[in-house]
Write a structure and sequence with these properties.
This protein has 6 helices and no strands. By secondary structure, it is mainly α. It has one domain: Alpha Horseshoe (Serine Threonine Protein Phosphatase 5, Tetratricopeptide repeat), CATH 1.25.40. The longest helix has 22 residues.
Length: 116
């Protein structure tokens, strides 16, 4: 369910800092953690802009993309946090994004068989 400007229940929960509702929506499968809403912002971007570390951890646990999603301004969650002055959080997001990219690369590689 979305509003006329594209906001979802998860976006509202994140924007209001309601971690319990966000967790419930994600756990029961009624929310897409990467669904962009108003101005192309994902729930992770909203949490990053609000400096909400606990919410960011919840969203990352549910596979929110850090560096690969961009809003209408061309910013990802890392850049949103940085622009709002959340420098430590921006660093945290950058490191999480690099880790995600490494995991995606590892999944696509063919690893040689281990000798027995």
């Amino acid at each position: 369910m979305r509003t006329t400007i594209g906001n979802t229940a998860l976006i509202f929960a994140v924007r209001n800092g309601n971690k319990e509702i966000a967790m419930m929506l994600l756990e029961i499968g009624h929310a897409d953690v990467n669904q962009p809403a108003e101005a192309g912002n994902t729930p992770l971007m909203v949490a990053a802009g609000g400096g909400q570390k606990e919410m960011i951890d919840l969203l990352l646990d549910h596979h929110a993309e850090v560096l690969g999603r961009f809003n209408d301004n061309g910013d990802n969650a890392f850049k949103v946090a940085l622009a709002r002055g959340h420098h430590e959080l921006a660093q945290y997001l950058f490191e999480a994004g690099v880790k995600q990219q490494g995991e995606e690369k590892d999944e696509g590689e063919i690893h040689p068989a281990t000798p027995h």
